[in-house]
Amino acid sequence: MATHRLLTTLKSSAPALGAWVTLPGAIHARTVAQASSHLSWLIIDCEHGLISLNPGVVETVQAIEGSSSSPPSSIVRIPATGISGTDTGLGWQIKYALDAGARGVMVPMVGSAEKAREIVAEARFPPVGRRGFGSPFTPGIWGVNASEYLHSANDSIQVWVQIESKEGMQNLEEIASVEGIDALFIGPYDLSISHGLPPPSPDPHPEAEKLIQRIREVTHKAGKKCVMFCTNGEQAAKRAKEGFDMINVIIDANALSNGIGSSLATAAGQ
Ligand code: 3PY
Ligand code: MG
């Protein structure tokens, strides 16, 4: 099977650590990918980041894939949401991200099991789903031939749904039990504000924390992986001890401005 870094890490006992890529540009993505040997995955953020699905994702995935012999796996967060009753373009966006060579997709604000099933269908080839097969480029980005790609994509591609709304919390058990979903991803910012709570600053409000722990428990009970979004290494180390399987550690833009800011402050004697 065509494997990749995240799948290998998930087979070990250590949590798979990731980072967020919001800034466009192939060299930028490659620089992030090469920043740490601890990185198992990167989110290419087309929802709130500035990377376009076309052509931004193709360049970004290629830059990451070529960054080392065992590069972090590219997971594309598409702009369309999984809010119930909306037709937000999920289908073509998932197709485009996967045809660009991504190792997985993540959909924001998934609210129901029906939406989760729709996401699985768009991300998996028949007979599991309804993804079309046709890109002449995708197998080459993975370094396999077309037949190998077709036969390993369904098992190899990660499908993540974000739980970060009241609707998502109400339907949590049903969403967690949808076959073909690999992981539930907690977005603590949207989860907090959708419940009338202040956003994390940087740690979540105690009431939001209860929701976070409930998502982790329900996800694990359903036999799925749970992913937590953090914004610094200390938070991430704490979440690793709590048993999260995958943890986002940092956002590229914040790392850049914090690094420049703190060096300049030191130089200025502060
Ligand atoms: C959230 O916290 O809302 C997220 O989506 C994480 O980026
Ligand atoms: Mg969010």
From TrEMBL:
<dbReference type="GO" id="GO:0016832">
    <property type="term" value="F:aldehyde-lyase activity"/>
</dbReference>
<comment type="similarity">
    <text>Belongs to the HpcH/HpaI aldolase family.</text>
</comment>
<keyword id="KW-0479">Metal-binding</keyword>
<feature type="domain" description="HpcH/HpaI aldolase/citrate lyase">
    <location>
        <begin position="25"/>
        <end position="256"/>
    </location>
</feature>
<keyword id="KW-0670">Pyruvate</keyword>
<dbReference type="GO" id="GO:0005737">
    <property type="term" value="C:cytoplasm"/>
</dbReference>
<dbReference type="InterPro" id="IPR050251">
    <property type="entry name" value="HpcH-HpaI_aldolase"/>
</dbReference>
<protein>
    <submittedName>
        <fullName>Phosphoenolpyruvate/pyruvate domain-containing protein</fullName>
    </submittedName>
</protein>
<dbReference type="Pfam" id="PF03328">
    <property type="entry name" value="HpcH_HpaI"/>
</dbReference>
<dbReference type="InterPro" id="IPR015813">
    <property type="entry name" value="Pyrv/PenolPyrv_kinase-like_dom"/>
</dbReference>
<dbReference type="InterPro" id="IPR040442">
    <property type="entry name" value="Pyrv_kinase-like_dom_sf"/>
</dbReference>
<dbReference type="GO" id="GO:0046872">
    <property type="term" value="F:metal ion binding"/>
</dbReference>
<dbReference type="InterPro" id="IPR005000">
    <property type="entry name" value="Aldolase/citrate-lyase_domain"/>
</dbReference>
<keyword id="KW-0456">Lyase</keyword>
